[in-house]
Amino acid sequence: MASDPDPVQDFCIPYTPKPDSRRIAQLSSLQQCKNASEANADDFIFSGIKSAGDFKESGFSAMSINSKAFPGLNTLGMSFVRADFDLGGINVPHFHPRATEVAMVLEGKVYCGFVDSANRIYAKVIEKGEVMVFPRGLVHFQMNVGDSPATIYGSFNSQNPGLQRIPAAVFGSGIKDELLKKAFGLSGKQIDEMRRKLKPKEENQS
Amino acid sequence: MASDPDPVQDFCIPYTPKPDSRRIAQLSSLQQCKNASEANADDFIFSGIKSAGDFKESGFSAMSINSKAFPGLNTLGMSFVRADFDLGGINVPHFHPRATEVAMVLEGKVYCGFVDSANRIYAKVIEKGEVMVFPRGLVHFQMNVGDSPATIYGSFNSQNPGLQRIPAAVFGSGIKDELLKKAFGLSGKQIDEMRRKLKPKEENQS
Amino acid sequence: MASDPDPVQDFCIPYTPKPDSRRIAQLSSLQQCKNASEANADDFIFSGIKSAGDFKESGFSAMSINSKAFPGLNTLGMSFVRADFDLGGINVPHFHPRATEVAMVLEGKVYCGFVDSANRIYAKVIEKGEVMVFPRGLVHFQMNVGDSPATIYGSFNSQNPGLQRIPAAVFGSGIKDELLKKAFGLSGKQIDEMRRKLKPKEENQS
Amino acid sequence: MASDPDPVQDFCIPYTPKPDSRRIAQLSSLQQCKNASEANADDFIFSGIKSAGDFKESGFSAMSINSKAFPGLNTLGMSFVRADFDLGGINVPHFHPRATEVAMVLEGKVYCGFVDSANRIYAKVIEKGEVMVFPRGLVHFQMNVGDSPATIYGSFNSQNPGLQRIPAAVFGSGIKDELLKKAFGLSGKQIDEMRRKLKPKEENQS
Amino acid sequence: MASDPDPVQDFCIPYTPKPDSRRIAQLSSLQQCKNASEANADDFIFSGIKSAGDFKESGFSAMSINSKAFPGLNTLGMSFVRADFDLGGINVPHFHPRATEVAMVLEGKVYCGFVDSANRIYAKVIEKGEVMVFPRGLVHFQMNVGDSPATIYGSFNSQNPGLQRIPAAVFGSGIKDELLKKAFGLSGKQIDEMRRKLKPKEENQS
Amino acid sequence: MASDPDPVQDFCIPYTPKPDSRRIAQLSSLQQCKNASEANADDFIFSGIKSAGDFKESGFSAMSINSKAFPGLNTLGMSFVRADFDLGGINVPHFHPRATEVAMVLEGKVYCGFVDSANRIYAKVIEKGEVMVFPRGLVHFQMNVGDSPATIYGSFNSQNPGLQRIPAAVFGSGIKDELLKKAFGLSGKQIDEMRRKLKPKEENQS
């Protein structure tokens, strides 16, 4: 499976000019490679997920390390995530538009699963050292069902897999009430309530 | 963007042996091409979406024509859909794991939109002859907002784009109540109610 | 099938600086994305093919909407075309170097077909609501054989499928006479005549 | 550029059961790999183009070595061709739907060229040791303009690039006269004449 | 980056008929998918790398989990490896022909590095929780430089990345002595000695 | 097989601004296409490998023509190499991280081979007019075993296949002695000696 274009050189660490103007800001989204002779080992090493992120009150923290966070990944077709769960913490139903994910449990017991195009669910509790694959683009989710914090390390076959968290994407994005009411069989009041709950919470997490 | 492997011949209409045994049924999922000399124009023409599907009570009907329904598409990286909307009919928030969609309004006025990875919404009412693109893998939706039935013709850059309809995938698939309650801020009773409403309705539509 | 690189973000509407100098003109061919926060629904909607193009005397008009005409398509791997045919109007034998086409008849009766690598023809008259697939890179053609104007809407699995119209590419491009005479078994006078007829006509259409 | 799917193993020499029945014939189009332990060096070596093919009266001979002729190429995304030209011999305008070609002149002086989507021609006489690239899917052609036989060795980035020779594809395939007359500005008599000349000639060459 | 073809369905767990004959053995290399309705969560979970493999005397153990070992990965474009190192244990210079690798240190201190096409080295000691990326197809290596056993978890963007371990591929495969002597500036005696050492050791590891 | 992204236009000859500053140097690695109307046939023709390179004392010379050396190849997914061998000259074990190679012997008798992921060797002497395929990313090698100079012309399915020459990549790049000693069963003195021999020699060749 392929979610990214193929590379045409060994690697390409983006050259990022200082963002001192609107125009430069635009240019910085171009793919400009540093001269390879100026690259060194540190460009290919990431040290920012050695410990858990901050759970705050949500009980869940995810650090998604795509090619923006770790430029050495650029053009190489991979990225990764560290997800930490407090007791009972959840990773809400979500999916990645451009990648398959292979997730390994580093600590704890986690209920993991995904849903296929026929609405069949594939879910189970897995433990430290076990690995589950979430096929490209399918809705999946996790919940810490053990009695201690849990950690998952996921890797993706895209340098920027994208992310749509269902509650925020559907109820926090501004889709017309009438459509949501019909789609989910909810009342206007219920929709409002969900919006109130979901909007700020997601903003903290994004 | 690419959602399918490249072809290695002009075309490959699957050769489908009669499904008279379990083993043959398995074999039929293999990619066996008919001899090209036995193919003819009819293999590349689809006539099954000349008129609307049956709305029933849901007010919406979609006929997805992938390479199973239209074998001539096999290996060619495209497929299409005809969606018909009665007054107020909706196509619930959904996405295609393996394709971008380009949708043209054939009749009527339709509120169309999608949500990006940052939960921003891009939505507007479009009319007969207008075209909207839904980027690969992003949640999108439609609702007939005109005063007559509406029809959309969508095309995909995959022979089998896949489909996840959010209400059924999330509330009709059997994800644990506790996870859903936390994810959407709903009570157990509300979840039950949504399940009751969504399960059978989706089954009719799939 | 894949004719374009995979995307590495949800979408990328090209940022096009004003073409006020030669250098900027060059730069504008780079892929610079607008900040997603500055995009809106209109960037993903195309309204320019609601009515037929101008037939002039040729009896045929095609509006090809690739990622230059509709920047929202950029990186998304799709584009489309509206083709209108007056009575007896034809779309000359042509092909798209980088895409499969799925063509739906919106109005009229159209003789549609393609030729495969073994010079076998797959052609038939199709009508409103019928769909024909033209496999990637193969020569295909259309002719209005009904008694009223006809319209076709085609979609492609490339943001820029390319186009080679055989008469103009072969007889209007300047290939040496000697080669053309041998290739087609024509006299020099016949070649000259075809050139005279084909050159200006194609220029109007391109 | 990619015209084939990526491999998922080092190589895959197709396992071809004896074609002793219709059903086996179908099966043989499946991709079945020989056990790698039964492969040897000869599976990856091709010795059939050491000398020129037979010109017969046409003055041109091409031996296209795709993955059918040389099974070791299967899944590896490449193939090649040897083309020999007698004095004044031509390779008629043609294109490969699924590959770029890089052509090296092994002997002689050859007028080589291609036409782009804007009908611009890129053509020149090149000599032994010179190389010309024909971009994927564009019409190209060659003619021996030296005073001795010429030979070209071309390679492709597809295991099966496909081939459409314009004269035979357009005038030898059975496209309706009326369409051809309009497309090329020819009379019915001229079309008939071209058909008579092109049909058998192409059949010898294919 | 892409090393595998794109999927055309949500997933495809290979259907493997019993290998009771030579012919069936061949057939089993075909891609036959189990009916999705017969799949369950266990098909997508791998539990075989919860603990280290057996170091034996080599001080190193790698368990490569590709789509043969874990059929649920089939068509999904990813695979993974667990590598364990005793004190001073090494993973010899090697590369994967069809994938980038992202490697995370689960335990210990490991000297990790790769070499680019200009023979520049990118190497450093990394620790638990740090991640290094090895670009597709480049030679890389690891050595436990801490004072306790070390473990690395690597993931790949191919379901079957392939592996060439340089010592065995070059000195243990049977390349002519004369070529090796010239290539490495070694004497025949030295080559013999390396062969003796490398042949059996690699066989234990493969 | 695919080692490069797909093109999205007929061709794209990079526009290279003058490298008069560090910033421009960076910009020049961007993909800026010349206006197609300013391109001509010479942009697609390469004349630099009509005769052999300089053997110097090494007995081997390779001219790798990727998209940097021949900008017309840019985005077209192919490149090529001319390799000349004096009597007994060798092309050391090496591989291309991003391409399959199809190699034709233009002159002489050459021992050619490659090694697969199971360390099996596929090697044989081939002669003028014979062709061997080296699957993507696998170690391969050549040696002139005839009694006159030999020449090979290789083509690749990537515009920039990359190259890792094993002796220089492993012994000339600075991998820690301890790791190399263990990996190859060599003494520190032997490693030093190899380094001395390999370092300068490779530098002349790169």
TrEMBL record, chains A, B, C, D, E, F:
Sites where the protein binds Mn(2+): 94, 96, 101, 140
Location in the cell: Secreted, Extracellular space, Apoplast
Record domain Cupin type-1: where: 47-192
MF term (GO), any: manganese ion binding
Keyword Secreted in record: yes
SUPFAM superfamilies: RmlC-like cupins
Record-given protein name: Germin-like protein
Lineage: Eukaryota, Viridiplantae, Streptophyta, Embryophyta, Tracheophyta
